[in-house]
Every structure is written in structure tokens, then in C-alpha cells.
Amino acid sequence: FLFGYWIHFQATSHCGDGDKHMSNEFLYTLKGNKILNNTRPIFYGNTVKLKNQEEKGYLHSHVHKYPAQYVGRRNSSGGQQITGYHHGDHNNDWILLPEITNPPMDYENNKRIAIKDGDVIRLKHESTGNCLVSHDISSPNTGANQEVSAFPCANSTNDENYSKSLWIIRMKKGQTELFGKVTSFMLVHKDTGCSLFMGPQKLPDWGYKQLEVAAGRWERQLNWWRVDKRKIVLNENETQLVGKLQNEEDGEEEDTDEVKEEGANKDAAEGEDQVKEEEGNENGGEGNENEEGEIKLVEGEPREEDQEDEKKEDSDNKRIKGNPETIQESEKDGEKPKKKKSSKKKSKKGKSKEEKAKEEPIVPLTPEEETDIQVATEFLEQQKPGFFKKFFEYMTVQIEQNNKLVEEGPPETSPLYWPFLVHGQPFWGSKDRKQKVYLLGNPFTWYIAFLSLPIYLVLLVLDVFAMRRGTTFLSKEQQNFLYQKGGYFMICYLLHYVPFFVMGRVLYFHHYLPSYLFSALIFTCVYQIFALKYKILNDAW
Q: Could you tell me the CA-to-CA distances from 76 to 146, 151, 154, 373, 473 in Å, in that order?
């Protein structure tokens, strides 16, 4: 079994569409990965985007406040909202600040002070200037947890909000320094000991249907975070966002050059249309991702949350059903169908981006950048998983993704009723719903196979009881069918049937078919046991 997976890992050694489900350590073992390009040491004063490892959402905030009361008339702090958001946005940017000490840490002049395991930090929201805090107030959706909010950053240790803004970085075992993309860490509130997490529950309309972020005392997968991106200031008018291109993990595509080029090529009429569109979207908001990965606008959300790349993604996702190769606007828009955009966008001179990139001179790396790459390479080699660690992660991801299959489908049934043939399974139906094909097991063989299970167990108990008494109930040949063959089939039956009782995914009647086959094999063993004793059954066979 394990050797088969070893061959599988050797044969599938390149990156692919399923990369978003695997950890960065796993991806580093594959050919064609971009992990090294995005892995750099993180220092105090850096502006970063933090991503939850379980929900794949960014730590997000905006100027809007929590309501005065939550459901159940629970009072809130009325502070700035902290949420989880799945798309690239400037409101996902946080500045990593040290705690106030005497003498203070001079991270502004010394920009290479590393953040290590156990450090106490503060997180300052770049857009609003407020710091991330937590306090003894129940969170919006889960009342047993603490609310997380943002308030003005304290300038001294005497400020009442200062202690609430302190978070301890606790990294996974074996990790001592903070690196982008690969270091997993928890943010533990210093005052209360609660850990920051992002839950799967969505906030009400006042939270724009984004995910809840709170602090709790339980250590779960929801508590683990990573630095997904780091912003580096190159000069006064230019910034570079490390890891912004080819980010397979969240599927974003941010290209500032293309945005500038498209903006420069718009004529006056298109500009007026754009202004009208922006005016009409004053009450628009952030694009939320539905189960199919499409972006949709939710009414009443803040306009300042809108991003140009999300609008572009939203327009690209309007596809005619049944033809994924054609990108067209719906007929209701009243526009002509648009042709599929080429992956190589031409500039005014007719050159593609790839051609322009080849003509640009190669800028030599600074000594600091060379050092960062060397340190990142050594760190990734240390974290590189072996076969058993990759195998365990691979199996874990399969189970997790299987449990997330909760979409609507044919009527699901409980595993408890499968052996009794209470429900079948709809297989096909005509458009007018007058003709249907319904799958149902053969009642005769189905019930015989099921009834053989208790008969087998009774024979097993009687034979064990007889052996305890020193007598003989079954012959050795009969015991061969009872223990060796029948026991094997019974174990297979239970392994294919019992796990469905603890699965969280949607279940269907056809999931019982492997177990049914093993129950039929158990019937053959029971029949052989009786056939060896009763000649009439032996002749009939």
C-alpha cells in the first residue's frame, strides 16, 4: 500500500491544479513551484497580509464598526470590524510593530530585526491606523469566544488599550524565525491567553457576509496563520508586493503594469462610462466568493472595499453555461459578445509582456536580497517533508476535502437505512419530469445478504461458547469458512460501512454498494457452513 503511494509521489512530481490544497512545504518538493520566490524573512516594520491556513481567508478590517448589540442582545465594543476576506485588498495589509520597551526598538532605522518565536508584537492596520485588540466581550457569532476589534494604537504603556493590543507569536515546533509563506504561527493574546482564529461562520449583513474572526481558548487548525505576502517599499512612488504574481494558493492575479496600460488606453467615452458605473456602485461592496468560486456583489457593502482586480475577475466569470471556452457577457447587458482574451497582452508597440520582460535589463540583487534568498533556501530545506509526512498530509487533505462535499444533489439518506433498502437513488430524469430512471437494489438478494450478517454473528458466538466449554460445534472445515474467510469479509464490510456514520459530507445510497458486496460474500460463507452439515444444501449447490 505504502509502496504504491511512493510510486505515486515519484510519478506526479510537478505542480498542478490541486496545489492550493497542499501546504507550502509539500509544494516545495514538487518541480515548478514558486515557493522560494515568495519565501523571505519577515522583519519588524514590514507590511504583510496574514492568511488563515484553514479557511484560506485574509485577516481583514475596514472603517465600519460593530453594531451596538449582537444577536441575543449581547453588547459589543462598538469598535472597528475585524473579518476574514478571501480576495486581495488593501484593507488586508497589517504593519508588524514591536511592543513598547525602554529603550524602544529602533526598527525604523534598522529594518532587518527578525521576528522570532515567542516575541510580543502589535498589528497596526495600514489603512485605518488602528491596532488589533481583543477584550472580554463575546464575539458576534460564537458567544463563548472573545471579540476581536481595532482601536487607536497606544503611544505609551499607560494607555488602557495598550495591553489589549499585545499578541504573542507562537510558531510550530522546529520553527524559530518568521518567514513568509512557510512559517505557521498562532497569535495568542497576552492579556487573556486566547488565540486568534477565523471561523467558517459568516457575519450578518452588517458584516457584509464576511467570515468571523475572534479569539478563543481552544487550539484548533483555525488558529494557525501564515504571512502570505510582504510589501516592500522601493521608493516614494513605487512598491513591490512579494508573491503577488502566480499565487496559486488563492488564485489571485494582480498585475499593476496591465492595469496602468489598460487605464492609459481608455478613451474619453469609456472614461465617462466608468465614472457613471462608479457612481452607480456607491452602495456596492466587496465581492464575496460563493461555493462555485464566482464573485458576486452583496447589496449594502462599503464602496471603498471595491477593487479593480475583483471587478475584472467578476466580469471574466460571466460565462455562458455549457461553453467554458467562450467568455461573453449575457444578452441582457445589451453588448456584443466579447472574444476570449489572449493570455499574451500586447502593448502599444505590439509586443507582449513576455517579450518586454526579456528585453528589460536584469537588475543585480543587493547583498541583503542575496542573504535573504540563502537563508530562505536553508530554511525550506530544513522544513522539507519526507515520505511519511507527505503521505500523512496527502491522506488528511483527502479526508478534509471529502467532508466539504456538502453541495445539494440527489436526496441523501442516512447510513442506518441503507441495509433495509428504504431508499433508492434517482439516476436520470427527463426535462419534462415525466420519465425517470430510479436505481433500487434487488430486494431478494439484498435482504438475504443483510440477514446473513446476524446469522454469521450467531454462529460465531455459538462456536466460541462451545470451545470455551471444551466441546465441538463446528468442524475444522466449517471453522475455516467461519473465521478465515467469513472473518475477513466481515472486517471489510465494517470498514466500508461504519466510517459513513462519522462523515460530514453529503451521503448517497450508492455508497453502500461495496458493503453490500461483502455482505453477499458473507452469505456464501454462511451457506457453505450449513452445506457441509446438511447434504441437501450441498447437492443444491
A: 10, 14, 21, 45, 72
